[in-house]
Amino acid sequence: MKKENEFLSSISLEDAKKTLKLKDIYEVMKGDKDQNFSIELKKTIILLLGVSFPFLMVCIFAIDLTGGRFIFANSTVIIAELLIIIWMSYHFFKTYPPFLRNYGYKIYSYSIAKLAYISYFAVGLGMTKGNYIINFSVFFITILVFLYLYKKVEENMVLEAINNIFNQNYKTSKVLTITLKISGFSVVIALLSMQFYRMNKFWILNLTGENVGATSNVVDDMIGIVFGIPLLLIITLIPTFFLFKANLFVRGKVIKQYAEEFRAGTNFTKKEWYGGK
Questions:
Q1: Does the record's keyword annotation contain Membrane (predicted)?
Q2: In whole angstroms, how far apart are CA 214 and each of 200, 206, 220, 224, 228?
Q3: Of 82, 90, 83, which Cα lies nearest the Cα of 107?
């Protein structure tokens, strides 16, 4: 997030201290006081859930690989899923000082959710039905689009948070904002619409006088394009909608930027603030 870091670094210490209060520090540091489980336990559970699918895919494709079938396709999926598991593990073992404890946990949860989603589509890199080169290209480009979309939406959310918290006026994308806000609602509507069509397409086609056998596949393809692609992009944003806390991210970044100044102003000891002995 190079662009956001540039904007955040332009916030002066004076503005930061004037805007961020003790409650902001406690939220970045501890979050909800009434937590039933420790952050460490929740991180472990999230990791186990996150790696379960890529680990299962590694096992399945490894078994297929031992049979000598589709060596390149199977190897590609295995490598991709292993990289995702390694990246998830990196986020799990990445440590944050006590004053960024809740901030780090939120970033961790969001990162695992994104990687788990990408893991699901990485399986498509091993799809061997039809033309493998086309399948590989489609799924590879799809994953790149997902990553780009995450980046742009996160940037937009961070800029909006900076504007709201520090009364700035950075330009943001209304399209990305609206898309994110309607993501959950749109998924429900699109899924219901597609399901309604699939359950009733025969009488709909008969009603319109179309030849079912000749048009069913064509209409299915059109439905897939018109609803499927936008739905896929919107679903991609669900982890961002629910888990990326831009407001907390901005406050955490600014507090981290002026860590010692905030510590001195709140009378935390260095051990309480930075951890260690």
A1: yes
A2: 17, 12, 11, 17, 21
A3: 90
CA distances from 32 to 36, 39, 256 (A): 10, 11, 20
Radius of gyration for the chain, computed over Cα atoms and rounded to the nearest angstrom: 23
Inter-helix orientation angle 22-29/246-257, to 10°: 100
Higher pLDDT, 262 or 222: 262
- pLDDT higher than threshold 80 for residue 180: no
Does 212 have pLDDT greater than 50? no
Give the C-alpha separation, 177 to 160, whole Å: 9
User: Cβ neighbours of residue 272 under 8 Å, at least 6 residues apart?
Assistant: 98
Q: Report the C-alpha gap between 277 and 275 in whole angstroms.
A: 7
CB atoms within 10 A of CB 62: 15
